[in-house]
Amino acid sequence: MNSLSGQDYIQYSRTMLLSDIGEAGQLAIMNSPVVIIGVGGLGNVVAHYLAAAGVQQILLIDHDVVELSNLPRQLLFRVSDIGKAKVNIAKSALSDAYPQINIDVLAQPITSAHFKQLVKRFTVKPVVFDCTDNVSARQLINQQCVQHQLTLVSGAISAYQGQLFCIDFSHSHSHSYSGCYCCLYPLDTPIMQNCTQTGVLGPAVGIIASMQALVGLQHICNTFTQYGVLHRFNGKDLRWQHAQMSQDPQCEVCHQYPLTDHQERSNVTN
């Protein structure tokens, strides 16, 4: 897409009023494909915000079906959807609301083979949103984003504790490379609990998911500046903490990528 229609100007007028986005940013949003892995609490909100923002190509990946316990935080679903594939229900709901967008679905667990296929299917490298709820899936997604040099927007939440980060593995932002998910949580890290074991409040999930969508849109519009920064959220006291991520030289996933000068200085200082 090279230009906006009259309807586009009206529909996305509030976005384009932002001086750092404008028409060029809106066109970037509409021309950038995204892959959302996990269509639970996080994925519901991320997909909805991206579709509403004008993203034209969305691939939803999730093998799960709707359950009654999902409804308090997975707002695209209804009681009548119980037992049906999440990706199909999400596609139907979003297509009804935003008929101009193209939504594809994959109702299977994500694999490395899927990543090879999805990289080929898009003419532009997609932005990958990790909205899964288990560590093994996150490790796989991270490894594949490193291998295929994709941008990863990762979010997670359990009970009141949430986290968020974005890393551009394409190296188009030379200052941004700060290790990877495996540097934070090595492969031998004990499996952490998720909201199935610890519980979670729907609005807390929505906070992390909204931030994922915000970060992704800023990255697409080339206005994002906090690559490699880990953002932690405590829903109990509504506090955010921020920390610069650093690469583990022994990381099994990204060790082949050299540390930047900034990271080397930080490691020496610490």
Strand sequence of the main sheet, in spatial order? 3-2-1-4-5-6-7-8
- Strand content is 15-25%
Following the backbone from N to C, one meets helices and strands in this order, namely HHHEHEHEHEHEEHHHEEH
What is the tally of helical segments?
Answer: 11
Characterize the main sheet. 8 strands, mixed
Q: What is the average per-residue confidence, as pLDDT, rounded to a whole number?
A: 90
Task: Tell the overall outline.
Answer: globular
- The total beta strand count reads 8
Gyration radius over CA? 18 Å
Low-confidence stretches: 259-270
How helical, in percent, are the residues? 25-40%
Between the first and last Cα atoms, what is the distance in angstroms?
47 Å
Structural class: alpha/beta
Please explain how this structure is put together.
With about 270 residues, the chain is of the alpha/beta class. The protein is about 40% helix and about 15% strand. The protein has eleven helices and eight strands. It has helices spanning about 5-10, 15, 20-30, 40-55, 85-95, 110-120, 135-145, 180-185, 195-200, 200-220, 260-270; strands at about 35, 55-60, 100-105, 125-130, 150-160, 160-170, 230-235, 240-245. It has an eight-stranded mixed beta sheet with strand order 3-2-1-4-5-6-7-8, with helices on both faces. Helix 4 packs across helix 10 (about 200-220). The protein is globular.
